[in-house]
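Researcher: Going back to the complex we discussed earlier. I've cleaned up the inputs and rechecked each line, so this should be the final set. Can you rerun the prediction on the complete assembly and write out the structure?
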Amino acid sequence: MKVENHTIFVQTTAGTDILDLTGRVSEVLGESAVRNGSVHLFVPGSTGALTTIEYESGVVNDLRQAIERMAPEDIPYEHNKRWGDGNGYSHVRAALIGPSLTIPVIEGRMALGTWQQIVLLDFDNRPRERRILLQISGE
Amino acid sequence: MKVENHTIFVQTTAGTDILDLTGRVSEVLGESAVRNGSVHLFVPGSTGALTTIEYESGVVNDLRQAIERMAPEDIPYEHNKRWGDGNGYSHVRAALIGPSLTIPVIEGRMALGTWQQIVLLDFDNRPRERRILLQISGE
Amino acid sequence: MKVENHTIFVQTTAGTDILDLTGRVSEVLGESAVRNGSVHLFVPGSTGALTTIEYESGVVNDLRQAIERMAPEDIPYEHNKRWGDGNGYSHVRAALIGPSLTIPVIEGRMALGTWQQIVLLDFDNRPRERRILLQISGE
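Model: Rerun complete. Updated structure for the full complex:
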């Protein structure tokens, strides 16, 4: 059994940017010798998160709206009063969804559902170059 | 160190079905040679999720109601307008909770708390046969 | 590749106590021989959860308030009617956030962002001595 570390870079926009990473992760996995094991994804930083969803613009917008209800952008945040960068809502959203996702790899492929894609949620209020760590482990 | 892939099948009902998987997972683990490592659970599909809770019908209903507040069934969803299957709320709920859960295995047992059970949340609006992937890795 | 099991104990207070575990986890990792792999954290029990956040008291309070909106302390919970321990909200909050977190280890260090800390959220309504399981695996 072995561990491989990879990194994916993506460019995001301001606002709640939700990006499909599935193709990029599959490409990296395709070059790995691991046939059975897992892919672990992690987003370093406190305003990004990872989950899965059917990557169809309707439901992606629906998710954006649910998150806006949970941690609205325009209510007062103590973080903003202290640091003045206006992204208190971004930090709260990222903490609620979480930075970590593990997907089983079986016979060389990620065991996702047919309509299930891996997404990065970038909640920050400015464009970012995001680094996503991709750890493949197994045999 | 090794990796074993297993699958559990469960039958769900329509509505937010919350099922205790702990016994089923323990059974599979009991037949494994892994003594120290982890069990990783993953639900393929974009309308299911996994977490832990005390599996007691009161608090299970309380969780159902909290999720209904976060992503109500009867508000408009763009997904429904486009695809007409009426399960926009199911997709949003699943993305918020997440499809993946990892539990340490120590001396052949899952290190759950006394009142902590593994649950599948099936948010889809129709009965499903669900497949849960169970990956055991360790020594 | 190998697996090491460790335990961290922390003392929490009543209310939604949010504690930074990063230093404690780093100390344990510093004594491990694992250079590439992962740290998996798990909180046994159904009223605790784990995530990451910038551990700054402003945004920590903001997170506390978002969670209070999602599962308010003072609304009726079926769990409370049946069990009388008044912590129905604690169980629901813990199930929503989740008990499990995995962080990649690269060249002997956790690959966290600069302002990203590991936090335990103890939602119980009484002080607890909490046990957090820390599993280090890799090479």
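Model: Worth noting: The beta strands of chain B are 2-11, 17-20, 37-42, 48-53, 100-106, 109-110, 117-122, 129-138.
Researcher: Good, that matches what I expected from the previous run.
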